[in-house]
Automatic annotation (TrEMBL):
Organism expressing this protein natively: Brachionus plicatilis
InterPro entries the record matches: Cyt_B5-like_heme/steroid-bd, Cyt_B5-like_heme/steroid_sf, Cyt_B5_heme-BS, Cytochrome_b5
Protein name: Cytochrome b5
GO molecular function, one term: heme binding
Primary location class: endoplasmic reticulum
């Protein structure tokens, strides 16, 4: 990609509403946000080493989309991968504060629900383990 083409992609600024409109008008495209940049990764789905589902999880399609920055950084992408991203960048987010707020609210709700699911499973597992131990002690004494 030439430098002027990269500059054009970097200069396209999307408000939240414009981004949601773009995704609604192009339902067959896969857009995601990393470091407040907008990427169209449709052509990269089949090539992604982590599989297409890793990218589709962060698809921008409604107001509750999840920013992919944290997952992107957690994986530890190489400099080559970071350089490759440039050709898929189609713009930047204008409403950075709003985007972070939407993501934070979504993450908080998701982590609360995951936490409830986890503790819901832990209590029965502990009770089952206690009953198993008590049974073994009873059988060994008899």
């Amino acid at each position: 990609m030439s430098s002027s083409a990269e500059d054009n992609a970097n200069s396209k600024i999307y408000s939240q509403e414009a981004l949601f409109e773009l995704t609604a008008q192009n339902p067959d495209r896969y857009y995601l946000s990393i470091h407040e940049n907008v990427y169209d990764v449709t052509e990269f789905l089949d090539e992604h080493p982590g599989g297409e589902e890793a990218l589709k999880e962060y698809q921008i399609k409604d107001k509750g989309f999840k920013d992919a920055t944290e997952s992107f950084e957690d994986v530890g992408h190489s400099m080559d991968a970071r350089d490759m991203m440039k050709k898929y960048q189609v713009g930047v987010l204008a409403d950075k504060k709003e985007q972070k707020k939407v993501t934070s609210d979504h993450d908080r709700t998701q982590s609360q629900s995951e936490g409830l699911n986890f503790s819901f499973l832990v209590v029965p597992a502990l009770l089952l383990a206690a009953v198993g131990i008590a049974y073994q002690l009873f059988v060994n004494r008899a």
